[in-house]
Amino acid sequence: MIRRLLLVCIGAATFLSMASAESTPGAASDLPHLEKSGNATQLIVDGRPYLALAGELHNSSSTSRAYLKPFWPKLTAMNLNTVLAAVPWGLVEPEENKFDFSLVDHLIEDARTHHLKLVLLWFGSWKNGLSHYVPQWVKSDSSRFPRVKTRHGTLEILTPLSEANREADAKAFAALLRHVKEVDTAQRTVIMIQVENEVGLHADARDRSDSAMAAYAQPVPRELLDYLQKNRDRLHPGIRALWQNSNFKTAGTWDELFGHSPAAEEAFMAWTYARYVNRVAEAGKKEYTLPMFVNAWIVQPEDEFPGEYPSGGPQAHVLDLWQAGAPQIDLLTPDIYLPNFAEVCAQFARAGSGFFVPESRSGAEGAANAFVAIGSFNSIGYSPFGIDNRDADPASNPLTAAYAILHQLAPLILEHQSKGSIAAVALNTQNAARKLVLGGYTLQASLPVNRRTNQSPERGYALIIAVGRDEFVAAGSDLQIAFATDPTSSETVGLASVEEGTYENGTWVPGRNLNGDEVMISYDLSVMAASHRTGTGLKFPGGAPTIQRVKLYRFSDTK
Ligand code: DGJ
Predict the structure, then answer these.
(1) What pLDDT, in 10s, does the model give residues 376-422?
(2) Closest ligand 1 atom to the C-alpha of 59?
(3) Is 197 in the pocket of ligand 1 (CB under 6 A)?
(4) Which partner from 223, 322, 364, 536 sits 20 to 30 angstroms from 550, CA to CA?
């Protein structure tokens, strides 16, 4: 509330003074949390909305401080403000009830030295659906800590249907959060926690261990039925169709309600994993309430059945079951390595309660993805996987320049995410143009076409913010944007002025005034005039993205 008042009073040009909104360090309201703000759910860090320009370390990197040492300056040079790093259960609880959090302390100290925030990834009972990160005392005692049984046999994976498994994990996770609270409440370097990693069952749709068979024969839990009934008209079509098998029965076993199919078995697993993870998260939050999320190994194009992808994981088509079963989890997020990035984002952002991409690609594709996640889906940030790449030179990674621009624009982005006045577009040669409606205008984004060679770049992307009446700030690479009014209007839109520039501490610093070749998209003026266009627009060259600020004007047909 205080922040919103400040925003109204101070206005867009004085972002810096928002720093004064910070309240007493250590106060509960100062802890990192998610907050619904207008159109968006944002991550609040140190009392202010925060855009996580993040990267995830390789799985084993956090286990050696010496190994990681040379990478910290590289992470800063890549313009990251946040690092996602693994905390393996087996290393922090090597003996039952004996905890060693030196790995966590080192991460926190080193992140602070490099002015970075941390998201800790709890590699507990499952990492990519496997149980390789559990302590040896858990691994070697399979009668106390039972495994899943598939139709092909027993796997080296903890069953989610064991109270002993769940409580041992929850206890360790609670100890982790207690420790983070002790060492980090004052500075708040740790801003979020991922609970487990890409959970779900491999090799079968359903666990067939004794406890799983018994649970599957039980009535569907009341909490789930209540959720389904309450949200019947909003359910994912897949879940709705399953339930329709029984004509929406409101009592009965899993088979009786959802029929007998791999999809019905997957629904049982989704509920089961969600309840387990919820209990772990709950135990952690009791100690220290940080935002918590789970990440999904999403369905790949070649997958036909659950089990080919981890069955019961938080994939898009079972998010209803996760929302019902894991209210302690704040965000259900996708790991996206597929090219249909925006489509996957749309499936997960559907829940409307906040969005993040914890794993995806780096490089040029990553730069475009980051713009799209943040500009089109109000993401709280973006995080490519394997950011501590041995051979990589930060300067040559296109993501470095993209993060520099997002960093400059962050205050404006966060303000306009909540106002709903931001959009983004990523195009490629298969999909070379797109219309957007923003700020009362129709924007035609397209890949530039070389007039001599008729060639287009492989990809282009931009993020556009309607900052005022007839005024936009846009940033992009290899893309052009033409402006038009509503198609039924007889007015034509022209460029009043276009400036290239930078934001320094939130203040616009103009560079070149762009005109002539730098704004001319088409000389086909007969076609342009017939469709109320001028042939001008914003033209973003390739390579590192740049920022432009445009003022538009309109003129009517001559009588
Ligand atoms: C997804 C997992 O969540 C990561 O931990 C890592 O294993 C990557 N896959 C590797 O591509």
Answers:
(1) 999 999 999 999 987 778 999 999 999 999 999 999 999 999 999 99
(2) 5
(3) yes
(4) 364
